[in-house]
Amino acid sequence: MAGSREWLIQWLRDAHAMEEQAETMLSGQLSRIDNYPELRERIRSHLEETKEQGRRLKTCLDSLGEGSSMLKDAGGKLIATAQSISGVFAGDEVMKGSLASCTFEYMEIASYTILIVAAKAAGEAEIARACEQNLREEEAMAEWLKSNLPQVTQTFLKRADTDSDRALSADVAITGAVHRFTGAANRIIFTQVKTKTAHSFARIAPASGRLL
């Protein structure tokens, strides 16, 4: 079963790098979803699960005499960091993040399903149990995201409508302020011109002998 063991090690390393990516992505999302408290709390909870999942995988690799590939982990973190900040300026970032999270969860589910079979084939019952625990947590997160996606979408749409109304109100307020300022400025200028004109006529009136 030497071949099975080698594949198990390779897939464990890939899964460990995947959890490193997940940790970075979740941390990035968590810092920017204050307006979605339920989603934020679930992501915070799953972030802690993800850290523990990574530790379980590291323990599995150590039990096989293999350390996780630091090069792969670092590369995974860079990719995840780029993914986590890619939506910073997107108006619908929370929706894009939800789509990405759902996709990532099902990829993790598939990965742990493969690992469980590989661990059993290699006679590694403890590794199989660790992967089964990770799998249950990923399945629970995937189900939560799927069940709450309609609510997140509705909240986003309501906030988008409110923000649009606020933007319109702000435009109207700014336009009105500009008009008021312009009107006041024109009145001041008109008054100054009128005053200067009156003073000029007052100076020339005696010379002309006319009453103004």
Secondary structure: helix percent: over 70%
- In whole angstroms, the N-to-C terminal distance is 117 Å
* Unreliable stretches: 84-89, 167-175, 197-212
The total count of helices amounts to 5
**Largest β-sheet summary:** none
Structural class computed from helices and strand pairing: mainly alpha
Order of helices and strands: HHHHH
Shape: elongated
**Average pLDDT taken over every residue:** 78
Radius of gyration: 33 Å
- How many beta strands in the DSSP annotation? 0
**Beta-sheet strand percentage?**
under 5%
Give the key terms.
212 residues, mainly alpha, 5 helices, elongated, disordered C terminus
Give structural notes.
- It contains 5 helices and no strands.
- By secondary structure, the protein is mostly helical.
- Helix 1 packs parallel to helix 3, helix 1 packs antiparallel against helix 4 and helix 4 packs antiparallel against helix 5 (125-208).
- The radius of gyration is 33 Å and the shape is elongated.
